[in-house]
Amino acid sequence: MDPIWWLAYLALGGFVGLMAGLLGIGGGGIMVPILTSIFVIQGVPHEHIAHLALGTAMAAIVPSASASLWSHHRHGAVRWHIVRHITPAILAGTFLATFIAALIPTRGLAIFFAIFMVLMSLQMLANLKPMSDCPMPSAPQPR
């Protein structure tokens, strides 16, 4: 691979990290469209572009989420009993969604992603937040 592509990927990672840190937005909303463009320029076969862009963005979540989890854990802000209960469902849903996405053609996957991003943008603009049934603690509980 030409070194220019390595630089492009490093620049993309830095840009996504900066935007996520400054604005608190999900990096996938930035990463997927830019990766799609890079893959088109590199000549990746059309039928693989959306899957590869989404898969790459999701793979980038693993180290990012792990670092965030560790940081929150060090501050005593992780409720591990909740993590233990939701983790199996998260893993099952991730694997199921992966197999379903593999069956969807590139165009359909791209349209789904675009609609999802529009809906999330509208939710953010309208400041719609889910209602909680229980109050969250205001400070970490002492150990």
Largest sheet: none
Q: With helices defined by DSSP (H or I, 4 residues minimum), what is the helix count?
A: 5
Distance between the termini: 50 Å
Q: Which structural class matches the secondary elements?
A: mainly alpha
Number of domains: 1
Mean pLDDT: 88
Helicity, in percent? over 70%
Q: What's the alpha carbon Rg, rounded to whole Å?
A: 18 Å
Order of helices and strands: HHHHH
Strand content: under 5%
Give the number of DSSP strands. Answer: 0
Weakly predicted, low-confidence segments: none
**Based on CA inertia axes, which overall geometry fits?**
globular
Task: Provide structural commentary.
The protein has 143 residues and is mostly helical. It has helices at 3-23, 28-42, 46-74, 80-103, 106-125. The protein contains five helices and no strands. The protein starts with a helix and ends in an 18-residue tail after the last helix. The chain has one domain.
Fold blueprint:
Elements (H helix, E strand, L loop, with lengths): L2 H21 L4 H15 L3 H29 L5 H24 L2 H20 L18
Jot down its keywords.
143 residues, mainly alpha, globular
Structure summary:
Helices cover 76% and strands 0% of the residues. The protein has helices at 3-23, 28-42, 46-74, 80-103, 106-125.
